[in-house]
Amino acid sequence: MLVNIPDLLSADVVMQLRKQLGLGQWVDGRGTSGYIAASQKKNLQLAETDPQAISVGNHILDKLSQNARFISATLPLKILSPMFNAYASEQEYGFHIDNAIRVDPHTGERIRADISATLFLSEPDEYEGGELIIQDTYGEQRVKMPAGHMVVYPSTSLHRVTPVTRGKRVAAVLWIQSMVCDDAQRAMLFEMDNTIQQLAGELGEHSSVVSLTGIYHNLVRRWASV
Fold first, then answer.
1. Is 169 annotated as a binding residue?
2. Are residues 74 and 151 in the same domain?
3. Residue 139: which CATH number?
4. Is 106 annotated as contributing to ligand binding?
5. Do residues 33 and 83 make contact, with C-beta atoms less than 8 angstroms apart?
6. What is the spatial distance between Cα 139 and Cα 168, in angstroms, rounded to a whole number?
7. Full residue range of the structural domain in which residue 13 is found
8. 102 and 203 both lie in a single domain
9. Where, by residue number, does Fe cation bind (predicted)?
C-alpha cells in the first residue's frame, strides 16, 4: 500500500530545516547500506549522530506523532530516527529492497522495517530526475512530491531513486515498525478507518458507525502485535 501524507511540513518550516541541515556534516551514503545495496548507492547523507540531524529529525518525529493520516496508514509501534540524504550531479540509488532490521544509532534499539517513508525537502522544480520509483502490485509508481510531503510504502517493495541530472534533491528517509506487520491487513484497516471517519461526518454517532468502529478495533486487536 502506497499512501501520500500531504503537507506534513509547511513551506516555511521546510526552508528553516533545510538551512539547519546545511550546517551539518555530510558523508558518503554508502556507509549505511548493506553489501549489495552499497554498490547501487551514490549519494550523500548527513551523519546520523550529527546534532543538526538529531534536531531536525526530532522535529519530524513530533509532526508525525500528530498526523492522523500517517498514524492511520502505518499504525506505528516504533519509528526509526530519520536519515537525511542528498542527490546531485548524476547521483542515484539503483533498485534495492530496504534492510529488514535496522538499528537506531541513538538508542541501539533494533527495529523491524515494515514500512519505508520518504519526506521530500526539495521542491520538484529545484532538480531534474530524482524520482522515487516503487514497484508494487499495481505496477511501477513514480513519485516526485512537493517539499513537505511524504510518501509511505511497504519496505518489501523494490524501489530506486533515478539520477539527478540538474540541481539537488534533499529528503528525509525513515522506517516504521507497525503494530500490524502485514501490508494487506494494514491496507484494509486504513480503508476502514477512512470510511468510518467519512460516515461519522455524515451520520454522527449513528448505530452503524458505532458498530463499524467496534469491528475496526476488534480487527486491530486480532492482528496487532505489541
1. yes
2. yes
3. 2.60.120.620
4. no
5. no
6. 27
7. 3-178
8. no
9. 96, 98, 159
Number of domains in the chain: 2
Asked if residue 33 and residue 90 are part of one domain, the reply reads yes
Q: Per the annotation, does 96 bind a ligand? A: yes
CATH number at residue 217: 4.10.860
Output DSSP code: residue 107. Answer: T
Instruction: Give pTM, 2 decimals.
Output: 0.93
Query: 209 and 108 in one domain?
Result: no
28 is in an annotated binding site: no
Q: Are residues 96 and 208 in the same domain?
A: no
Length of the chain as a residue count = 226
Q: Strands (DSSP E) along the chain, which ranges?
A: 3-5, 26-28, 44-46, 76-79, 83-88, 93-96, 101-103, 110-112, 115-120, 127-129, 132-136, 139-143, 150-154, 158-161, 164-178
- Reported as a single tens digit per residue, the pLDDT across 90-120 is 999 999 999 999 999 888 999 999 999 999 9
Residue whose C-alpha cell reads 511497504 in the numeric block: 154
pLDDT value for 3: 97
Q: Do 189 and 168 sit in the same domain of this protein? A: no
Co-location of 171 and 99 in the same domain: yes
* SS3 of residue 41 by DSSP: strand
d(CA 92, CA 101): 23
Whole-angstrom distance, CA of residue 133 vs CA of residue 160: 5
- Grid coordinates of 108: 541501539
d(CA 26, CA 29): 9
Average pLDDT, consecutive stretches of 10 residues, N- to C-terminus, the chain (226 residues): 97 97 90 63 92 96 98 98 96 94 91 98 98 90 97 97 97 98 97 96 91 97 95
